[in-house]
Amino acid sequence: MEAESTNFLLEVVVPTIGSVVAIAMFLSNMPGVLKVRARDDLGDLNVLPYPAILANCVGWVCYSFVKPNGFILAPNAPGVLIGLFYMLTCLPAAPRRTADWVTGLSLLYTTAFLVAGSLTCYRDLTEESKQMLWGYTCNAILITYYAAPLSTLLQVWRTRNASSLSLPLASANAANGALWLVYGLAIGDKFVSVPNGIGLSLAIVLLFSIFTFWPGRGRAKAEGSAARWEKAVI
């Protein structure tokens, strides 16, 4: 009975919560996108993660088809619609350079799906080989999605100011990574556990940076250290 309860917790409750957290993570960008839609101006909104959101969800939907898993399909099906809405809303308001980057990333991800889809349909692959093909494809895209916020991490450490990072999004990434890591380990699926373990690690780095360099805190610590040094020298 205890073993059945543990299995139910790990294989049903955890991925159910994980699905809710994943959808909330995808929706965290919605307020900013709705502002863009209302004023037809991109402002300071960074739209480069949106192609990764869309591609990540499309990839996992495909993975859930070759390795039938409703828990993987559940958050990623609405994620496809959310990512597509973000792209179609923000792209017309983006400057040419940003639009070119989004277009290039979209073409890159689409090419990867065309190659994986063609191999799946036109090569005599075993079911295990199909799962591995889509698993590796999804893993590569998921890592780029998790790593997207790290593009500003160097600037955060240089300026000692984490105002460019989002605490709610970093927290959601950490929770999402932890839940799907546990689920992947529970069902023995390395394509679920490994990338989410990496995602959890990246999210922890982001959270550490946010709490270390919260606006004013990092500067105050630096100034305090400098003052103590000057006092010691004098």
TrEMBL record:
What GO terms are given for molecular function? sugar transmembrane transporter activity
This protein's membrane topology, according to the annotation, is: Multi-pass membrane protein
Task: List where the protein spans the membrane.
Answer: 6-27, 47-66, 72-94, 101-120, 132-153, 165-186, 198-216
CC annotations in GO: endomembrane system; plasma membrane
Subcellular compartments: Cell membrane; Endomembrane system
Where does the UniProt annotation place the signal sequence? none
Answer whether the UniProt record assigns the keyword Lyase to this protein: no
**Domain of life, source organism:** Eukaryota
Its primary localisation, in coarse terms, equals: membrane
Q: Does the keyword Repeat apply?
A: yes
Q: Which controlled-vocabulary keywords does the entry list?
A: Membrane, Repeat, Sugar transport, Transmembrane, Transmembrane helix, Transport
Assigned protein family: Belongs to the SWEET sugar transporter family.
**Function summary:** Mediates both low-affinity uptake and efflux of sugar across the membrane.
What is the official name of this protein in its record?
Bidirectional sugar transporter SWEET
